[in-house]
Design brief:
CATH class of the largest domain: Mainly Beta
CATH architecture of the largest domain: 3-layer Sandwich
Strand content: 25-35%
Order of helices and strands: EEHEEEEEEEEEE
CATH topology of the largest domain: Rieske Iron-sulfur Protein
Radius of gyration: 28 Å
Strand order of the largest sheet: 3-12-11-6-5-4
Helix content: 10-25%
């Protein structure tokens, strides 16, 4: 609340002055309200980004998946530059699906400079790499995080669902190398 003090004519006939005082509490509440209100215009676009949906695409049958044998696929569809692989690791993994939570899918392109990771799966370490460009290696049991090398981001991981014995890709966690938008 603001305290307003106005001198009456009887107190001082030569000048009228207003003395405005704002309490510390009023100042902090007004400042906090201004900060909160300034973020509202950006909230509408943030909600739109969250609301975008990836297509649900069948990528494999459970019976076709063999432990430590990656299978390549393209996701999102209609984007030949976004190649992924699905692999049954035989041990539990972050965001894994299946009875043992051991089926995962990741991008085939290094997150550092887009180097091809095809054929670099190391079954004994459950890792992908090293990338032929700068030797980055990724841990597939821990969301594709970097084990060693120049990359600073994990491999983009496809979000998977299982339905009626089939594995479906339903989204991607992370930005695919070379894309400004995974769905563009």
């Amino acid at each position: 609340m603001m305290d307003i003090k106005i001198e009456s004519e009887s107190e001082s006939e030569t000048s009228e002055t207003e003395h405005l005082c704002m309490s510390r509490r009023s100042f902090l509440l007004a400042g906090g309200g201004a900060v909160v209100l300034s973020t509202l215009p950006g909230m509408a676009s943030a909600v739109k980004l969250v609301a975008r949906e990836y297509p649900r695409v069948k990528i494999a049958s459970l019976k076709d998946l063999k432990t430590d044998q990656p299978i390549d696929f393209s996701y999102p569809p209609n984007n030949p530059m976004s190649t992924f692989f699905i692999v049954k690791l035989g041990e539990e993994a972050g965001m894994g699906v299946g009875r043992k939570n051991d089926i995962v899918a990741f991008s085939n392109m290094c997150s550092h400079m887009g180097g091809p990771l095809n054929g670099t799966y190391k079954a004994e370490h459950k890792a992908m790499g090293p990338c032929p460009l700068h030797l980055t290696t990724f841990d597939l049991t821990r969301h594709g995080m970097v084990i060693s090398g120049h990359a600073t981001e994990s491999l983009p991981q496809a979000q998977l669902e299982i339905s009626h014995g089939n594995v479906y890709a339903v989204g991607v966690m992370g930005l695919i190398y070379g894309q400004h938008d995974n769905l563009a």
